[in-house]
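Give me structure tokens for this 102-residue protein.
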Amino acid sequence: MTKEELLSKIQTTIDEQQAKLESLKEKALDESHEAIDDVKAAISDLEPKLEQAKAKALEIADAADDKWDDLKDSLESGWDEATSKLEEGWSSLTSSVKSFFS
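Here you go.
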């Protein structure tokens, strides 16, 4: 995979995750007090994971093209780990929060 292909894949994932998080925030405004507490907890858990993913994307983008071949495997692995943490965060949402997306 080239640097540009990986960065495109990363940006797509970040955009999707950011949209899901924004949707969660918007839906929280219309929900009961109990549900809002669950949503706030979920947002607090997910925001730092998304920021970590963005930081990993910047690290990949900043990798010098001439060093890409040397760094490629470790950067791809790091990105896979970052997205895995994001997906784990979404998977661990309580059922009340998950119902917002039904």
